[in-house]
Amino acid sequence: MLKLCKKLKLMGASYLSAFRIVFSRTDLNRWKTVAKSAPTWDERNRLIASMVSPGSSVLDLGAGAQTLRWHLKDCKYQPCDVVSTTPDTLFCDFNNGIYPSVSAQFDYVICSGVLEYIRKPREFLIQCSLLGAKKIITYAPFLPSQSHIWRLNQGWFNHMKQSDLERLFDEVGFQWKLAAVWKEQAVYLVES
């Protein structure tokens, strides 16, 4: 193991970061940092909020700084994250198999900027279907211009092409449509 680490260090820091991601579960330090301030992807939150019917109940998986809350119109908002930034945050740690316990399904389950960080996407999607019938899921698909090392350096555990993800939606019984593209991320409206 030590030999491999030394070899990776000689190859550059990006390989070390990728190596760390391969063998880690949940990058808690990353999520603590993300939860402290408004994210650079807040425009994606505005786009998602525009797809949610006013007055709906919304479960925000991987809520982070919870900026989606402020873009929703008259919705009951429930944050869920591995890092608690407000007292009402439900705890979850998807890569360790911990999903929120809820008493009723939500109108919308939001999975924005989460799926890339999931080790077992099929299991995650099945669990999401138990939390609410309608979902808004974003995903940055594996592109020809990317390498696995580059994606691992983003902290992303999986490397699905857009067609792979859509096939997975079909396999788990989701009805889906590509609703928008934000930067290079696909935004899906999904029903189970």
Describe the structure.
The protein has helices at 2-11, 13-23, 28-34, 42-50, 68-71, 121-129, 148-153, 162-171; strands at 57-61, 76-81, 90-91, 106-111, 132-139, 175-182, 185-191. With 192 residues, it is α/β, with parallel strands linked by helices. Strands 3-2-1-4-5-7-6 form a seven-stranded mixed beta sheet, with helices on both faces. Strand 6 and strand 7 form a beta hairpin. Helix 1 crosses helix 2 (13-23). The N and C termini lie far apart (43 Å). 27% of the residues are buried.
Q: How do the SSEs run, as a string of H and E?
A: HHHHEHEEEHEHHEE
Uncertain segments = none
Percent helix, as a range, is: 25-40%
Number of strands: 7
Largest sheet: 7 strands, mixed
Could you tell me the mean pLDDT?
A: 87
Strand order of the largest sheet: 3-2-1-4-5-7-6
Task: Supply the number of helical segments.
Answer: 8
Give the N-to-C terminal Cα separation.
Answer: 43 Å
Topology readout:
Layout: H1 2-11, H2 13-23, H3 28-34, H4 42-50, E1 57-61, H5 68-71, E2 76-81, E3 90-91, E4 106-111, H6 121-129, E5 132-139, H7 148-153, H8 162-171, E6 175-182, E7 185-191
Parallel strand pairs: 1-2, 1-4, 2-3, 4-5
Antiparallel strand pairs: 5-7, 6-7
